[in-house]
Design brief:
487 residues; 17 helices
């Protein structure tokens, strides 16, 4: 065992589809005289590897289209007024009772949630493997618990469904259990990259704040358009066909913008973590040059590529919503509409998975959207890692951590309400329930953004390790040895 550990410092294991087939090469690139060395050379030559692209705007027409829709949405909010109600009532401008207290409560809970999420990164780094194992076992436990509760309520169908989920979860856990050490090593490496460049999380929160502002503007547009196009009789209002079409356009704009903001964060994180992998001296501080450079490229040269992929997902999401509304309002052809909606749901999942990995290459090298997707998928297929990128071990673990952090924030909300009851006294006996639920939602939101950054970092680490293990060994030898040993 000691000899194997020592050899890691002298040789690098090239990961392949089967860990047992992995072979060692010299970090200096010297030719080996055995057959294994020749196989490695052939593998390296055939392996897809990204290259830095010339600095220029890519997929620019899609960025122009996106900016035009943003301008249109803002223009409607500014220039389209909201009709007064039939009784002529107007807003008195009076504040909601306890409004200031609720605002202070939410502000404090946001700070508490952020502190918990930031602190959890250190604990996750130390206990990454245990967390992944716990998330797998927890899903099985919850399925069994659901079945037991169904039995207690004499719900036979619910009990069967619960035990079926537990059986499927157990089979899944057995199938992926041997890959947990590698997933844990990836998670630890991704967490290290985020902690070294923690300023990236503030960019993520800034972009999410912009998303909330945009949602508010769209809501104003919806209210204005509905008031202008709806026909009201006897206090009941119905939207016309024109209004329905316009509202669907607003829904599409909202879907597109949400995807653009989400993918901008993803591309920025990918660029930062990639720089940390290849050139750690430029990506090892709170506000490193890698963060600002990656954010600038994501919002300028690569923004068109981000808008392109986001547009595809937004179109599918809008079509799904149209079919969902049609299925809900009509009894005829409901089966066909349900099948069509399921097909679109599958297409949406495929598009999101493609975007998830394509945008890593966009962030790393600045490729166009389609070219980036082809290259990164070719790389992962050559490595035989298609199963690794679909097992979702890290993503499921991060989702569980989000729920746990949200619950802890909810408990903190109860404590704060007990300590400063005057903030929510206007709610009377409902203040405790309100405190927990609001704190829970805030905690879930804050932690989801933080864990989303970590998830992007982990996926980028997987791509970098698949493409350039030698650079990882040279720049991050301890983490690289853990990944190689786990593989």
């Amino acid at each position: 065992m000691e000899e194997e550990n020592n050899s890691l410092t002298e040789k690098l294991i090239v990961p392949t589809a089967d860990p047992e087939d992995a072979v060692e090469v010299s970090p200096t690139g010297e030719d080996e005289e055995n057959q294994a060395g020749e196989d490695v050379d052939e593998t390296e030559q055939a392996l897809t590897r990204g290259e830095k692209q010339p600095v220029q705007f890519r997929d620019a027409p899609f960025a122009v289209l996106f900016y035009l829709q943003v301008i249109a949405v803002v223009a409607v909010a500014i220039f389209v007024p909201v009709k007064k109600t039939a009784d002529g009532n107007e807003d008195t401008g009076e504040a909601i009772p306890g409004q200031k207290g609720v605002f202070l409560f939410c502000l404090v809970m946001a700070g508490v949630s952020f502190a918990m999420a930031a602190t959890s990164l250190a604990a996750m780094t130390v206990h990454s493997e245990s967390l992944i194992q716990t998330s797998l076992l927890f899903s099985i436990f919850m399925s069994v618990l659901m079945a037991v509760l169904a039995i207690l309520q004499n719900n036979v169908a619910g009990a069967i469904f619960g035990f079926l989920l537990a059986a499927v979860g157990s089979c899944y856990a057995c199938a992926v259990w041997r890959r947990i050490p590698f997933a844990a090593a990836n998670l630890k490496t991704g967490l290290t990259a985020v902690r070294k460049n923690f300023g990236i999380t503030f960019i993520a929160y800034f972009l999410v704040a912009l998303s909330v502002v945009y949602m508010t503007v769209v809501l104003i547009d919806v209210v204005a358009v509905f008031s202008q196009t709806s026909q009201c009789e006897d206090g009941a209002c119905e939207e016309g066909d024109t209004g329905s079409f316009i509202l669907m356009l607003f829904l599409f704009a909202l879907f597109w913008t949400q995807q653009v903001i989400k993918n901008t964060i993803h591309v920025t994180v990918a660029g930062t973590v990639g720089e940390w992998w290849f050139n750690p001296t430029n990506a090892s501080s709170f506000c490193s040059g890698a963060i600002s450079g990656s954010f600038f490229r994501a919002t300028t040269y690569s923004f068109g590529s981000i808008c392109f992929g986001s547009l595809l997902v937004a179109v599918i999401q809008t079509l799904r919503q149209i079919l969902h509304n049609a299925r809900r309002n009509r009894d005829q052809n409901s089966i066909l509409l349900c099948i069509a909606e399921c097909v679109l749901a599958c297409l949406e999942d495929l598009a999101k998975v493609f975007n998830q990995w394509a945008y890593i290459y966009v962030g790393l090298y600045g490729y166009k959207y389609v070219e980036a997707g082809k290259n990164v998928m070719t790389l992962l297929r050559q490595r035989g890692w298609t199963t690794i990128i679909t097992d979702d071990l890290v993503s499921n673990t991060l989702s569980l951590i989000c729920v746990v952090l949200a619950a802890l924030t909810g408990c903190a909300g109860l404590i704060l309400n007990a300590a400063v009851g005057s903030w929510l006294e206007g709610l009377g006996d409902n203040s405790s329930g309100f405190a927990f639920m609001v704190a829970f939602v805030i905690g879930l939101f804050i932690s989801s953004v933080m864990m989303g950054v970590v998830d992007s970092a982990v996926n980028t680490v997987i791509v970098c390790f698949a493409e350039a293990p030698a650079e990882g060994q040279a720049n991050h030898p301890v983490l690289s040895e853990e990944m190689v040993g786990a593989w």
